[in-house]
Write a structure and sequence with these properties.
The chain has 16 helices and 19 strands. 50% of the residues are buried. The mean pLDDT is 97. It folds into three domains: 363 residues, Alpha-Beta Barrel (TIM Barrel); 53 residues, Alpha-Beta Complex (Oligo-1,6-glucosidase, domain 2); 75 residues, Immunoglobulin-like, CATH 2.60.40. A hairpin with a 2-residue loop joins strand 13 and strand 14. The chain is of the alpha/beta class. Helix 6 runs parallel beside helix 7 and helix 12 runs parallel beside helix 15. The strands form four sheets. It has an eight-stranded parallel beta sheet. The protein has a six-stranded antiparallel beta sheet with strand order 12-13-14-19-16-17. It has a three-stranded antiparallel beta sheet with strand order 4-6-5, with no helix packed on it. The structure holds alpha-D-glucopyranose (GLC). The site of alpha-D-glucopyranose has 9 residues, from loops.
């Protein structure tokens, strides 16, 4: 197992830095805060931390609008704090993955300021400038992911610029060689500081249709959904030549030892797997978001695992994600009881799991009052239920007034249950979600079958999903009850074993042979005798 590279055998933990730990009472988490909490991560047993962007930013999109790719925003600290953090991360045997946001910068980035200063500025072509359509108006019908036209008129120079997200996030022009070179220098800057890899923001967006053709309407669009869904993004994203751009980024990483390239890709499985790249020269891990979007149904999940497993190119390594800063919390989606089953699924599937901060204590739906809304998408398209603040609330560490997150006023409200649902309380509760998450990670770490072994579906019937993980003689069966009723499940013939973990954290260590009774919402891990 030790011979397998870390990003295959390990568990990744995503930190949303604004909300993890504040160290200077301004209500916003920071790098020193993360450093103070590293022992939690070691105790939990994860291998790598991915931190969402901490670069200087006007925070129009909370750091995904980068004003300088090679520095740290004062809200989070400075480069000295960063060096201290990475040193301590490595001292503990952990890895650090940075968020890299190459598709767009902030409109306050020096590059964009130059680019918009005049039509003949040398950096004009670093961004995407187009004339108005012949009859006036935007160059084409492309819509911003946060609503409204994706084109912003610039009065001073008489052209539009393209922004796939906020108008404060102009898209860079990856067809321009200087942009590629500048961005490769950024990668080297952080690699030289010792970072172990990157999660690349909206990697499938990097290239756009050279002719800027209109996107066709989406026939499946229904009113009340975000405007971006009204069009099929076939010309604005996922262009064939994006893979050359990614291969060149990958080449930069390959100049260093054991670094990982992860790509954010929201596409159907058949398109997603193309991001491994030709001859696997693309992303090591194109993020697999299937579990975030699936109906919570045993048969459907079995199908999507099979489809995904069957689509990964030879030599490609799978991965699974159950939560992130853009998606509703898993406990809000499937309920508190099923969140335990979901954690067992995430941590026993084949492929690198990414765990989102706070999911280990089961933070659920956090209501955000209108006056507290921060998310620019929610502000642009209010009332559609797409706001991302509920999944970005502060981490709940203990039962003190501000949950141990800050001594100031948190930038987003804390979940109401923070006095009872927090790390301190759950760490000493043998039946808590935190205890379960840790037990699952520990089991995975100990077992070659669970961390790097093969996957095979056993069956999916009614509410029960059962599969096997195997590596030589190390063999486990995972049986998940996705429903709220008791279920019976039969061990395959000639198999005996013992239940080594249950999501209820009771009834473990029972020898089993043939029929097993699963409690409502219970998942179990069986270690097979042979
Ligand atoms: C990614 C990020 C999201 C951000 C968007 C624009 O999807 O995860 O938080 O708003 O890109 O950068």
């Amino acid at each position: 197992m030790q011979e397998t590279v870390w990003w295959k055998r390990g568990v990744i933990y995503q930190i949303y830095p604004r909300s993890f730990q504040d160290s200077n009472a301004d209500g916003i988490g920071d790098l020193d805060g993360i450093r103070r909490r590293l022992d939690h991560l070691v105790w939990l047993g994860v291998d790598a931390v991915w931190i969402s962007p901490v670069y200087p930013s006007p925070m129009a999109d909370f750091g995904y609008d980068v004003a300088d790719y090679c520095d740290i925003d004062p809200n989070f600290g400075n480069l000295e704090h960063f060096r201290a953090l990475i040193t301590e991360i490595h001292e503990r045997g952990l890895k650090l993955i940075m968020d890299f946001v190459p598709n767009h910068s902030s409109d306050q980035h020096a590059w964009f300021k130059e680019s918009r200063s005049s039509r003949d500025n040398p950096k004009r072509d670093w961004y995407i400038w187009r004339d108005a359509a012949p009859g006036g108006g935007p160059p084409n019908n492309w819509v911003s992911n946060f609503g409204g036209s994706a084109w912003q008129w610039d009065e001073a120079t008489g052209q539009y610029y393209y922004h796939a997200f906020l108008r404060e996030q102009p898209d860079l022009n990856w067809r321009n060689r200087e942009v590629c070179e500048a961005m490769h220098d950024v990668l080297r800057f952080w690699l030289d500081l010792g970072v172990d890899g990157f999660r690349v923001d909206v990697i499938w967006h990097l290239m756009k249709d050279e002719q800027f053709r209109d996107n066709p309407p989406n026939p499946a669009y229904v009113d009340g959904r975000p405007e971006i869904e009204s069009l099929l993004q076939i010309h604005s994203t996922d262009q064939p030549d994006v893979h050359d751009v990614i291969a060149r980024m990958r080449h930069v990483l390959d100049g260093y030892k054991d670094r990982v390239l992860i790509g954010e890709v929201y596409l159907p499985i058949d398109r997603l797997v193309t991001y491994y790249g030709r001859e696997l020269a693309g992303a090591h891990l194109p993020f697999n978001f299937q579990l975030l979007q699936t109906a919570w149904h045993a048969g459907r999940i079995a199908e999507l695992i099979d489809e995904y497993e069957g689509s990964i190119p030879d030599g490609g390594w799978p991965n699974w994600v159950l939560g992130n800063h853009d998606q509703p919390r898993v406990a809000a989606r499937v309920g508190e009881d099923q969140a335990r089953v979901a954690a067992m699924l995430l941590l026993t599937l084949r492929g690198t799991p990414t765990l989102y901060y706070g999911d280990e204590i089961g933070i659920g739906r956090v209501a955000i009052p209108a006056h507290a809304v921060q998310d620019p998408w929610e502000k642009n398209e209010p009332g559609l239920g797409i706001g991302r603040d509920p999944q970005r609330t502060p981490m709940q560490w203990d039962a003190s007034a501000k949950a141990g997150f800050t001594e100031g006023t948190p930038w987003l409200p804390l979940s109401e249950d923070h006095r009872t649902r927090n790390v301190a309380v759950q760490a000493s509760d043998p039946t808590s979600m935190l205890t379960l998450t840790r037990a699952l990670i520990m089991l995975r770490r100990r077992s070659p079958a669970l961390s790097i072994g093969a996957y095979a579906l056993l069956n999916a019937k009614g509410d029960v999903l059962a599969y096997e993980r195997r590596c030589g003689h190390d063999r486990y069966m995972i049986v998940l009850n996705l429903g709220g009723k008791e279920e019976l499940w039969n061990l395959p013939e000639n198999v005996t074993g013992e239940i080594v973990l249950s999501t209820t954290l009771g009834g473990a260590d029972q020898d089993v042979a043939d029929e097993i009774r699963l409690r409502p919402d219970e998942g179990i891990v069986i270690q097979c005798h042979r």
